Amino acid sequence: MNQLSTLDLAALSWFILMWGGFSLIVDTSPLRKKSLSYHMNQHRLRWMQALAEREMRMVDTAIITGLQNGTAFFASTSLLAIGAGFALLNSTDLALQISYDLNLPVEVSRGLWEVKVLALITLYIYAFFKFGWAYRLFNYTSILIGAFPPPDKIESIEMSEAIHQASEANSLAGRHFNRGLRAFFFSLGLFAWFIHPLLFIGTTTYIALVLTRRQFLSRSSKLASRLVEE
């Protein structure tokens, strides 16, 4: 950490604060019930309730397959980003020469450059594990859907438990997918760190504001909320 200046440490601390603070607000705070993610979890419950009344559930498994494919895409992208990060780490001298040629406003040492690249790699490793676990959870959800009782048992305790288990697994998969996607968004702030710590702070703040707006003030959030209330 002796490679980091006071401004670098402040920027990195701000990054952690913004990411952690946003995650707390969306995932655990009382405000989460006004978020888009929360409203979509309610729709997941409604989905399982509607599924319970259907005789043919092929459309539901097709939806789960689509969700899995999207998750697999981001997991694969995470692996590619991790590989690119290690390639960048092995090309430190070339990268430093390019930064000198571009006359960046801050002097970058070899150690500081490697710290920044390792931070990016760590972020994408975290994202990969989130996407990988989300993929497994969507797979478990499809198994739970396959284990649903027939529609003529709609009023049974067995059906109620099946609805609860499937909706919870589906919501948990969505939560881990969102956390992986969140890591992707905040990684854009880390890229700004390669140019200047102040740009890192500004980009991170902008990303946090955009994500907050999408969760609480966007048209999609209002639409999801309105549909839940109906």
UniProtKB/TrEMBL annotation:
The keyword Transmembrane applies. The keyword Cytoplasm does not apply. InterPro entries: DUF599. The chain crosses the membrane at residues 7-26, 73-96, 117-135, 184-212. Pfam families: DUF599. It comes from the Bacteria. Keywords: Membrane, Transmembrane, Transmembrane helix. PANTHER family: OS09G0494600 PROTEIN, PTHR31881. This is Uncharacterized membrane protein. It comes from Cohaesibacter gelatinilyticus. The lineage of its organism: Bacteria, Pseudomonadati, Pseudomonadota, Alphaproteobacteria, Hyphomicrobiales.
